[in-house]
Amino acid sequence: MFKLSAKGVVVLTTALVLTLMTVTPVAAAPVEPSEVPENNDSHIAAVSVSEAEIDFDEYISSLDCLTPQMLEEYREYLLTTLKVETVSYVVEPGDTLTAIAARFDVSVNTISASNDIKNPDRIYPGQELEFPAVDGVLYTAEEAVNLSEVAEKYDVSARDIFYAMGGLEGDEVEAGTRLIVPGAKIPDPVVTRSTASRSGMASYSGPSLMWPVKGTITSVFGSRGGTHLGLDIAQSPGTPIRAAAAGTVEYSGWSGSYGRLVLVRHNEHVVTAYAHASQLKVAKGDWVDRGDVIATVGATGNATGPHLHFEVRIDGVKYDPLPLLTR
After folding, report:
1. Deepest in the core among 20, 90, 121, 158, taking most CB within 10 A?
2. Which of 128, 292, 99, 303 shows the shortest CA–CA distance to 219?
């Protein structure tokens, strides 16, 4: 189902009305501001649904003024404007996936998932990369599959894929077909490492974690007589804090001594915590990719200076983040 926000519908309606006016202009008497009542019900209704989602097909079919030709022209317009190009890039000496992603304004996961890169910190000069020009994934069907199955796999709309491809022959996708899936939600590859908790060593099985911020480590896990159960990284106020791996924002708000806190759930077991932020850039329920900015460094809560307090929690138990962060 293809959906537009009410705001998008207003834009669409305006464009269509302008088109109709050029064909059949109609004179209308100007309305003086004094003629509009302060408590305008239609205005209030429009405001109340400004963020609502509207079924595009139902909305279009309800407009009797549209001719089949106009509908077809608009469909062609969508196929042209929403089509997504594929980027081809050859890795150069000194390149990192983070730098390449920033250069093309896509996420690290977009590149790594599109090229089956298990460890995003291991790329090499001369390596050929292909990925969509927007966040998502370049998907290759290993066997015949239905378009709706691909959409469900990545939690997107089949129509999004259809338009990103500039149209498709049908719903059935043959083996070997490459599809651009815009907005695909891509979990990070799972790695296994050993780390320590307050009660001893343990095995970590979860996504590879990038440094959420680069700076000076001021307190390690287990310091302060064993009471410090995270990693403190000092940095200037306002420095971007990035998601250590892809996941869903489980919490974003104030949390006592943590100050402004973001929690990101990466899978059933693993959650990362980012505390003492000055500003929060995400809300509960948001999907974030590895490297996305989620907050900025601050000194809120119980903090003596600007820094990030970073935690890794596995099934609710806090573990030493240092062995889990990629070098």
Report:
1. 158
2. 303
Which residues fall within 8 angstroms of residue 268, CB to CB, at 6 or more apart?
A: none
> Given the structure tokens 């919490």, which residue do they identify?
251
Distances (CA, A) of 305 to 50, 231, 298, 309: 41, 14, 8, 11
Q: What is the DSSP pairing of strand 136-140 with strand 178-182?
A: antiparallel
Q: Is the pLDDT score of 244 beyond 80?
A: yes
Residue 199 to residue 208: CA distance in whole angstroms: 23
Residue 196, token pair as written in the block:
């320590």
If pLDDT is split at 50, 70 and 90, which confidence band does 160 have?
confident
Contacts of 231 (CB under 8 A, 6+ apart): 217, 219, 220, 221, 309, 310, 311, 320, 321, 322
Hey, which residues does 190 pair with through a beta bridge?
207
d(CA 317, CA 203): 12
3-state secondary structure of 294: strand
Closest alpha carbon to 270 in 319, 201, 325 = 319
Q: Is residue 195 very low, low, confident or very high in pLDDT (cuts 50, 70, 90)?
A: confident
Residues 6+ apart with CB under 8 A from 323: 193, 194, 195, 196, 204
- What CA–CA distances, in Å, run from 69 to 65, 73, 187, 248? 11, 6, 42, 43
Which token pair is 177? 């077909």
DSSP 150: H
Burial tier of 316 (Cβ tally within 10 Å: 0-12, 13-18, 19+): exposed
